[in-house]
Amino acid sequence: KLSDFLNTPPKKTVRFGGTVSNTLAKLQKGDTSDYELIKHQLSDPDIKDAQIISWLQEFRTCVTQLGKDHEQLIYVVLKLPWLGRSQAVVEEYLAFLSNLVSAQTVYLRACLRMVVSNFAPKRIRIQEGNVDISDSDDEDENLPRTFDQCHQALQLIARYVPSTSRFLMPILSDKFPFVQKSSRTLECYVHNLLRVSVYIPDLRRDILELIISKMLTLDVSAPRSEIEEVESGAQQDANGVSQDDCLFDMDEEEDSPLDSSRPDRAVMVHPVAERLDTMMTVLLSYIKDICHVNGSLDIEKTKALYRDLLSVFDKVVLPTHASCHVQYYMFYLCSFRLGLAEAFLDHLWKMLQAPNQPPVLRQAAAGYMGSFMARAKFLPVSTVKACLDLLVPWLHLYINSQDSGSKAFCDVNLHGPFYTACQAVFYTLIFRHNSILEGNMKKGLAYLQGLNLERIVMCQLNPLRVCLPAVTNMFAAITRYKNILYHFDLVSQGSMEEEDDFLHGDSVVDMTPGSYDSHLHSPRSVGSPPVSFLQRPF
C-alpha cells in the first residue's frame, strides 16, 4: 500500500559530512565545517526516525570524547524529538542517555532538565498574522506514553548516577509551572512529580512539600467568600442546577463551564478554585493509592506517608494564614484509620501545650484541633470527649495561673493560645453536643455540666469577647437550649465591652472555625477519588 510505504522510514538515510568520530577529529585540527553541519542536520524539524537512530548510535560509540567542550552539540542532541517516536528511537535514545550520564556526569543536569520539561503538555499556538487565534494544551492521545517514556528515562539516569536525587529536586522545583497556568498543565505536572516519588522515595517528602506549598499559594489567593460568590452566581445562571452537582465544577482557564472530555468531574467557574480543585484531586488520589494495596489498607506504608505529610503540615500549612482547603489532605488521610486521627489530634495537642513554640503556631494547632473534632464525622464521640478532657482542664489550669497575676484581662496578644483553645472547645460542642447527649441524656448532660464551662466564660480573660461572633452566638444558643450552663446569658457576657479587631479575623492567626470545611471537595468525592494514581489517569 502507498500509505505503508510513506510511513516506513528508509533503511538508509541521506547524510552530509563524515561520521561523528571523524568530525570530532577534524574539530581538534581546527576544521569546524562538519561539526556545524552535524548540528544543522540534527536540528532539522523533519528529521526521520532512521536518521535519529543512526546519529545516536554514532554518538554512543564516542561518548567518552564528548566532554564539556562539546556542550553545544550535546544540547542539540538533547533537543531531538525522541518522545512519541517509534519504540526503536525511544530505546536508542534511552541507551544514549544512559551512556552519556555514565561517561560525562557534567551533562547530568541538562539531561534531567530535558526530561522534566516534558512533564506537562506542550502549548499549541495557532496564529493568523501576528495574532494568536488559539492557545491551548496539546491533548495528544499519546500523552500517557510520552509520560511513561519520561519516567523510563529518569529511572535509568537514577540507576546509573546514584546522586541523581540531589540534582533532580531543584530542577523539579524550578520547572514547576506558574500557578496561573491551566489546570491541565498543573494536573499533569503534579501527577508526574508524584510518580517520581514512587521510584525515588528519598525525594517524597520534598516533592510533597513543593506541591502543597504551590497549592497553598493558590488557596490563600482566593478567599472562600469570593469562591462562594462566583460559584453561586454561576449556579443561578445554570438554570436550577443543584449546589451538590456544582461542588466539582472546574474551569480550565477560559474554557466553557462544562468539560465534556472529563465526565467524572464538573468544572468550577472560579479559575483559582478550579486549579486548586484539580491539584487536590491528584494529591488525594495519590494518598489513597499509596496507602492501599489491592484494595486493603497497608499499615506500614500508611504510617510512613503520614509521617511525611505531617512533617509538611507542620512546616508549610500550620504557619500559613488564611488557608481554607489545602489542609483537607490531612483530614482525608486520617479518615483511613482511627489511630491516625488520634495521632494527629495528639500531635496538635502537644503543639498547643508547648511553651517553646511560637504563639502563632500554638494558636493554629488549637484551631485545627477544634475544627477537626467538630467536623470529622468518622471520629467517635469517645475520642471527642477524650480531647475535651485534655483541653478543658488545660483551660482551667491556665485561668488558675492568671487569677492572681497582673495580666488577668482580655488581651489577645497575651493569651492567644488560650483564646484559640476556648474557641476550639466551643466550636466542638456546637457540632458534637448531640452525639454526646444521645443514648443517655442524663449522663451526657452531667458530663457537659461537669466541664464547668461557666467558669471559663465568666473568667476575667473573657474568651467570648474574643471568639468569632458566629461561634459565640451558636454556642450561646445550644447551651441555653440544652441547659448545659446554669442560668447564664452568654451573649451579654461576650459583648459587654467594645468589639476587638480580633472578632473580625484580623488577628495574628485567623480563628476561622471551618478549617476543615472544604468548599472544593465534598466528602463523597474525597472518599472515591476519580482516578487511580498508580494507573495512568491521562
Automatic annotation (TrEMBL):
One of its GO terms (molecular function) is RNA polymerase I general transcription initiation factor activity. GO terms for cellular component: nucleus. Belongs to the RRN3 family. This is RRN3 homolog, RNA polymerase I transcription factor. GO terms for biological process: transcription initiation at RNA polymerase I promoter. It comes from the Eukaryota. It comes from Sinocyclocheilus grahami (Dianchi golden-line fish). PANTHER family: RNA POLYMERASE I-SPECIFIC TRANSCRIPTION INITIATION FACTOR RRN3-RELATED, TRANSCRIPTION INITIATION FACTOR IA RRN3. Residues 519-538 are annotated as: Disordered. InterPro entries: RNA_pol_I_trans_ini_fac_RRN3. It holds the Pfam family RRN3.
